[in-house]
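Newbie here. two chains, one complex. Structure please?
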Amino acid sequence: MSNLRLGAVGMAAKDIVYIRSLVRLFAHTEKLGWAFAAHPPYHAVVAEPSARSANPAFFEGFAGLVLTLVAPPGAPGTDTIAYPVQANQFRDWLKLRETQLLEMLYRQQEPQTAPPETVVPAAQAATAVPMPLLKRRFKLRRWPHAELLKVDPMRIRMATLMSRNALHVGQLATLTGRAEEDCQRFVSELHDAGLLVELVAVSEAPAANTANAASMPVLPSVSAPAAPALAAASGRRGLMASLRRHLGLG
Amino acid sequence: MKEYKLLITGTMGAGKTTAIGAISDIAPVVTDVANHDRSVDKERTTVGLDYGMLSLDNGDRIRLFGTPGQARFDFLWKILARKALGLVILTDNSRPDPLADLAVYLDGFADSLDTLPCVIGVGRLDTHPQPTLDQYADLLEARGQVFPIIPVDVRQRADVVLLIDSLLGQIEAGLALDLDLP
């Protein structure tokens, strides 16, 4: 599933289209978890060297998750890739970084104060993680226990939404039409039961990157979602609405 | 007018044909023949595709395909899964090993399941409470997968609609990300 956001910085439009196409292709053929993001926050970026040198503060927040394009005969390293981009090299980098990034995100989910070998009860873990949950994006890592769903169609719906993508409470409320308080209560229960994984954009990570985040510029290379993608999403929403009406789902 | 497809798969006797009939606007086209598999207490079984249709108010059509249940047809599953809106996997808790049955379909559709919305409908849970829904969830967790697991009586339209609603929810969750919903 595509939950990791890859951006492109300082690149020509044709190269951005190419990168975006490859990311989409790999999401399907290689089952990679990346999606191309038109704007921050990003989990990683592909960048022209000139963009990197022009605004080093922006890139410090990515801490190794920057793939820099280099012109031949520059020897590609761990986080560099020859331009024009070879699809297989790009795929390999995405695979490598996806694994590392997901491991890092999982580690961030764990309570920082607990020794590694200590099993922290779910309720205790919940208090160790800063609240509120309102703006944090969570995804289910396991379908909830029956007692938690209470055979409630709305709870099943919320769990369904979170089984697919990492969402925050506001998004849940928008998608379900329920009050944020109801959604937050359910998310808290899932959180306390240890059923959630949080997605944290590296650029938004607390502590070490706070200063950078505060001054983080929005680079002009990709400023808006692609129009065809928005149109397709809009069309799909119309289909969903029509199908719901047809089935009497309101 | 655009056309889309939804797939319903599952073991022989899980109720694919019945589920299609519960929501289809047309009488389902069925391809049942006499069942010679004596391991399943059922007079007839599907050998081709069951078919139903939903005609929407915007002119679009949703084609409902019920796949043949036997694993030897898995080549057909892969073809059908292409460009499908979603997949319903029906399990029958009265069978000897429903979790193994589910694994067959998860494997058979594995190429698609990272992107294809999917829901598990567990049938006959009222009369056969084992395995529990939590055991189904355990199986999925062990495989690194999270799909909704919902008890279902495919004879009840509302139950089948809930399965479809679950697929729609997954599609909407994807759209939320695409549109960067605030």
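Moderator note: Residues 3-178 of chain B form a domain with the Rossmann fold fold (CATH 3.40.50.300). Chain B touches chain A through 46 residues (CB under 8 Å). Thread marked as resolved.
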